[in-house]
Amino acid sequence: MADLLVEQTQEIIISKTFPTKPKLKSKPKTPLKTPESKYWSSFKSHQISNLISSIPSIDFSPISPHHFAAANSASLNLFSSHTLSPVSTISSSDVVTSCSFRCDGSLIAASDLSGLIRVFDVKTRTPLRRLRSHARPVRFVKYPLLDKLHLVSGGDDSVVKYWDVAGESVVLDLYGHRDYVRCGDSSPTDGEMFVTGSYDHTVKLWDVRVDNKESVIEVNHGNPVEDVIFLPSGGMVATAGGNSVKIWDLIGGGKMLYSMESHNKTVTSICVGKVGKESGEEALQYRILSVALDGYMKVFDYAKMKVTHSMRFPAPLMSIGFSLDCMTRVIGSSNGIIFSGRRKAKEDVGESKVGNFWALGSVEEPQRRALRPTYFRYFHRSQGEKPNEGDHLIMRQRKVKLAEHDKLLKKFRHKEALVSVLGGKNTENVVAVMDELVARRKLLKCVVNLDDEELSLLLGFLHKHSTMPRHSGLLTGLTRKVLEMRAEDIRASDALKGHIRNLKRSVDEEIRIQHSLQEIQGVISPLLRIAGRR
């Protein structure tokens, strides 16, 4: 009776077997994708490639549906932010350098290399005003955020001009920059204050109410300034120049708060983007988006002072824009390609239908019919339901699929299992089987019982993999034992002698490499010590 119980117990233990698995590889630590990275990656990429030259300026309309304009050669192209398709084209007499929508989205101003600024009606594309006073090319033009009657411009004549659009006249000529004025932005809180950046490395804050026509605050970026923007609070500005983006506190008198230097080449354009939902706490999470000639777009969280996302594009980038509804991101490149991205949202589905019934209130979702035993769907209910956080899951036990060598190990046919796995091409499985045989104390016995052909397979494997650092601890010792135990068989066979010669060459080559590495280490170690002291 006792013997019968022992046999049944052995059968139960033997039947519960697990496949031999190779040891886990040491994987490099890769950062997990953060929720913010997932947010920026959710913008579905789309290329607009039918343009002929670089895109120096992009601007979004401040009103829905937030069309965007892109300056391209001697034209101003308008695109839909929903379909990313062309809407209209406004022609100019010279190469357009900058564009800006008015706060109501009905007018757009464009500057060109001839020094002319023209104001167009967005719907009819009719030129309404011609503003000419700059002696050289105009590099930027900007409508103040809270003003419909004035414009700010700057150009290669180093003069900043404040325009009366209706009268086509200059209200103020602001002198102070000593080189090309390349960029500017208006304050989001005060329509009579704006900031400009120049190639003389300076950024100046202007107030048109000041009598002496001098700048209120001046800061030095340290490089030619390519772009400058106000941050949403109105008390800070961000400047781009060289390979850095710097943040300045205007309320604190122009104190630099942080310098981000994550780009490898010149930063050409920056803008403000918003992360999160349309309401709630996440709606206040603003980011600075920067693009550079190195082809990278960087997302900078200026509250935590760190880069939160990076994206690579196959061309030098010249301009960037982000829509106010946080749904569209557009980047202009130097080769005429616009890399646009549209984020998917549930609100996009049936948007036009909701607009038609706006006066009647929200559109109710269609109600599903109640389930009855006469419906086929009744018998498949709840099969697609996902578990909640507190639910206890009962997983169905899957049948373990065993490889050929695992089946042989289960039957204690050790030598056949070793030969079977040696005939395959998976190095990890061979080492795993050898580890299992070492644990069972059967590996050396298998080596003794191998015939010449099987021994040739083993020597060939040792020749290829015995010098690999991951497996050298096991395979080097096994090689030594094989040479001791099967020396006579190796001397009697020319094929086995050939494997031994190849194995010797591999070991000699590995020793030579190790000696070279030691010499290099001897040269580098003193240099590292000296660098550590500094």
Automatic annotation (TrEMBL):
WD repeats lie at residues 131-173, 174-216. InterPro entries: U3_snoRNA-assocProt_15_C (IPR018983), WD40/YVTN_repeat-like_dom_sf (IPR015943), WD40_PAC1 (IPR020472), WD40_repeat_dom_sf (IPR036322), WD40_rpt (IPR001680). GO terms for biological process: positive regulation of transcription by RNA polymerase I; rRNA processing. Its main location: nucleus. Residues 386-527 form the U3 small nucleolar RNA-associated protein 15 C-terminal domain. SUPFAM superfamilies: WD40 repeat-like. This is U3 small nucleolar RNA-associated protein 15 homolog. The gene is LOC105132060.
